[in-house]
Specification:
This protein has 367 residues and is of the alpha/beta class. It contains 11 helices and 12 strands. The chain is elongated and about 70 Å long. The chain binds iron/sulfur cluster (SF4). Iron/sulfur cluster (SF4) binds next to loops. The site of iron/sulfur cluster has 13 residues, from loops.
């Protein structure tokens, strides 16, 4: 069997410089390669015309350049597109492009599946297959950029797809460094947001390494409800999570923490829940994104009525919380938050449900 060569995109620009130095090549060669690969999206060594024939051959013997192939793109009626991508080992993952008036946001995955088993999330129902490599995270950007209509470019990145980014920091950090490198993708760090369900010990590590925005998937204002929705809460309860966030340096109203709150009927949508949220987030520069639940077959939750959602938002706004009620994007193509999971995994789960697999019985959260 032929051994796979390393993928050049697994090396962030500084590491590539070091790697090439070991081969006796000067640092500026790494800059040239980074420019071809990321800024121009060229992956064929023969097209990198300022590298010289011998060097192109050497590099082609040393490195692969593509980590992912785009299998399909589905388009939602609201303009959102979901790409299904396949890695070299056959692993399949998803990435989502969300066009808005003033920006185009790409939502990337960091793991194939996810080990955290949040009870409202289709990805969580799949379990974890493996972490994605740095090159596989970056190739989601490149493959989805190639599929964009003429004249559109990706302006913002959110690490909110399949997986928990903070459980894959050795690959996420080099990917972010490449995304924000002016010679590579050149995305401004303020346009990159990394989301976590609350892996407390790794939050400070992430922000020390890369100056990105932090989003926290909160979803509940009490440990009782959050233990069910986000089981990681049993390990890192709200007091520990919020205590760690309060200690983060450089937070301000201009640099807040983004909190995601999926609103679920009868679970976390009461006036008392909104008041509790105001209380537990007091003193943290915060922006709260409230997103009505997208009903899907892998979770026993539904969105509340528009009236209940608006009452919930009213309490937050009157309490001085910067908060937005967002509409779920791409729900008709299973591309909304918490819906990313492969169709085949969905089908397997439904088959298990049909034959009454007791291990798949959903747990109803405490209201
Ligand atoms: S919500 Fe995020 S952390 Fe939770 S199971 Fe889904 S992908 Fe994993």
């Amino acid at each position: 069997m032929t051994e796979l060569r390393p993928n050049i995109k697994d090396f962030e620009p500084a590491a590539l410089r070091e790697r090439l130095k070991q081969e006796g090549l000067p640092g500026y060669r790494a800059d040239q390669i980074v420019g071809w690969l990321y800024a121009r999206g060229v992956e064929d060594w023969e097209e990198m015309t300022d590298l010289g024939q011998d060097l192109r051959r050497t590099l082609a013997d040393m490195f692969e350049t593509r980590a992912l192939e785009l299998e399909t793109v589905q388009h939602s009626i609201d303009g959102t597109s979901k790409g299904t991508l396949r890695a070299r080992d056959g692993a399949v993952l998803e990435a989502v492009v969300i066009p808005e008036e003033d920006r185009t946001t790409l939502c990337v995955s960091t793991q194939v599946g996810c080990p955290l088993a949040c009870s409202f999330c289709a990805t969580g129902a799949m379990g974890l297959t493996r972490n994605l490599t740095t090159g596989e995270i970056l190739d989601q950007f490149i493959r989805m950029r190639e599929a964009l209509p003429e004249g559109r470019s990706i302006t913002n990145l959110v690490f909110m797809g399949m997986g928990e980014p903070l459980l894959n920091l050795p690959n996420v950090i080099p990917a972010v460094r490449t995304l924000v490198d002016p010679k590579a993708f050149g995305i401004a760090p303020r346009r990159v947001t990394v989301s976590t369900s609350g892996v407390v010990p790794r939050i400070a590590e992430l922000l020390e390494e890369v100056p990105v925005n932090l989003a926290v998937s909160l979803h509940a204002a009490t440990d009782e409800v959050r233990d069910v929705l986000v089981p990681l809460n049993k390990k890192f309860p709200l007091s520990e999570l919020l205590g760690a966030l309060r200690k983060l340096p450089r937070l301000s109203r201009r640099h807040p923490i983004f909190f995601e709150y999926t609103l679920m009927e009868g679970v976390n949508d009461s006036v008392a829940d909104a008041r509790r949220l105001l209380k537990i987030l007091a003193g943290i520069p915060a922006k709260l994104n409230v997103i009505p639940m997208n009903a899907h077959p892998d979770a026993p939750y539904r969105p509340p009525s528009a009236e209940v959602a608006s009452r919930f938002m009213g309490v937050l706004v009157r309490g001085g919380m910067v908060s937005t009620l967002r509409r779920a994007r791409g729900s008709d193509i299973d591309a909304a938050c918490g819906q990313l999971a492969l169709r085949e995994a969905h089908d397997q789960l439904s088959r298990k449900a049909e034959i009454g697999d007791p291990t798949e019985a959903p747990t109803k959260p405490a209201a």
